[in-house]
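sorry for the late reply, my laptop died twice this morning and i had to redo everyting from scratch. anyway the thing you sent over, i finally got around to it. pasting the sequence first so we're on the same page, its 180 residues, then the predicted structure underneath. double check i copied it right bc i was rushing
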Amino acid sequence: MQINPYGSDKASLAVGLVNADPDIDPRGMNELLLAYKTTKPSVDAEETADLLVWAAKLRVVFETTDLDERIAVLNRLLDEAAIRPTIARHEGEMTPHLHYSLDTDSTVKRVKARTATGLAHVICASGGGRLGCCDREGCTVVFIDTSRNGRRRFCSTQCANRIYVADHRARSRSSGGHGG
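ok and here's the structure:
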């Protein structure tokens, strides 16, 4: 599945924020935001804590499997983010595009706007079913399923392999250990 390129970096930021270490410090948060193309990130300890609270709210969007509930949760987050769309054209760029916050807004406000709208783009483009949480017990990683068939269950090949190996061993034990 191809995600609208305008929403993909914002949705990826949501994934990165949700998967961030809950003990991340402001320096780490600024590095994370910069890695996801956030312009001039600058957060202190209080703002880092605010973003971790926001990440917990975003997590619910990934964990909720009922489409109507997922939409309701995200609509509440869009409202909380106080989205204010404007059309922008940067110097040297010919094509106008949408911004969902002002460049003068705080980093926290811009991140809230970017992540909420990014997930909204994914939900609208995919019919709502492409946000997921890893199926491996104990793994809390969330992801956007960009696979062709939309049936991704695990965050990584490593998590999938752990489950497949455990399932294979369990089958081997139950069949008398002569699997192969």
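Residues 107-126 form the longest helix (20 residues).
thats about all i looked at so far, will dig more tmrw
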